[in-house]
Amino acid sequence: MIDKREIIDAATALSLNPHITEKDYVLGWLLWGIYGHDKLAESWIFKGGTCLKKCFFETYRFSEYLDFTLTDSSHINNAFLKTVFAEIGGRIYEETGIELPIDFQQFEIYVNPRGRESCQGRIGYQGPIPPRGKSAPRIKLDLTADECVVLPPIQVPVFHPYSDVPDGGIVVQSYPYEEAFAEKIRALAERTRPRDLYDVINMFRNADVRPTASVLLSTCDPRPNTPR
């Protein structure tokens, strides 16, 4: 695990609280663990605001969420998630010294507005900086299995600007940029959260990679994901 001084220096350079920078650091290693797990690597598709930050725009808003579309709905299961994240936590600890205590992992299965099961999870961690108070900081997971997936996912390297980046980097399976843009438009229409509006505006302003209107229309189809 990197020294806390590296986290503090990075936070100072960006005028951020060190705990925010530490979370960004742990997010990278958690993605490494997820996409190094043989049961998740091909069926979890990274998306959302953190995907934009870690895969497409290195200088972007920081987020505590990891959002995924799952192509295998059987993974939305409390026992399964506890098992795989215990394995992921053990592997991350061996590689980095970051702790993901099992007691600080929670998974809540619920029925989403479309009538399908989704999951919200919280993964507690102990990184380079001692936690404030008695509770560990947490990374939030948002897992859905009925999201429309129009374009094939792509393999994308993750921005991990820390000295312990693993050999070969960190690579995830994510929405392509066009689908990420369309997903944000869908999310904005469905839930009207400020962060979705922020993302849509900033993605639209990035004219160099802005998808054409026809591509966006084709990927904004709200039909549920069909089983694979």
Can you describe what's shown?
- With 228 residues, this protein is α+β, with helices and mostly antiparallel strands.
- It has one domain (4-179).
- It has seven helices and seven strands.
- The chain has helices at 4-14, 18-35, 48-56, 78-96, 177-191, 194-205, 213-219, and strands spanning 44-47, 65-70, 105-111, 117-124, 138-144, 154-157, 171-174.
- The strands form two sheets. It has a five-stranded mixed sheet. A two-stranded antiparallel sheet has the order 6-7.
- A hairpin with a 5-residue loop joins β3 (105-111) and β4 (117-124).
- α2 (18-35) packs across α4, α3 (48-56) runs antiparallel to α5 and α5 (177-191) packs antiparallel against α6 (194-205).
- The longest helix has 19 residues, at 78-96.
- It is globular and about 45 Å long.
- The chain starts with a helix and ends in a 9-residue tail after the last helix.
Key phrases:
single chain, 228 residues, two-stranded antiparallel sheet, 7 helices, 7 strands
What's a quick, concise take on this entry?
With 228 residues, the chain is of the alpha+beta class. It has helices at residues 4-14, 18-35, 48-56, 78-96, 177-191, 194-205, 213-219; strands at 44-47, 65-70, 105-111, 117-124, 138-144, 154-157, 171-174.
Q: What fraction of the residues are assigned to beta strands by DSSP? A: 15-25%
Give the mean pLDDT: 85
Widest beta sheet: strand line-up: 1-2-5-4-3
Largest sheet: 5 strands, mixed
State the helicity in percent bands.
25-40%
- N-to-C series of helices and strands: HHEHEHEEEEEHHH
Pick out the low-confidence regions: 222-228
Our count of helices gives 7
Please provide the count of β strands: 7
Shape: globular
Between the first and last Cα atoms, what is the distance in angstroms? 38 Å
Structural class: alpha+beta
Rg calculated over all Cα atoms: 17 Å
Number of domains: 1
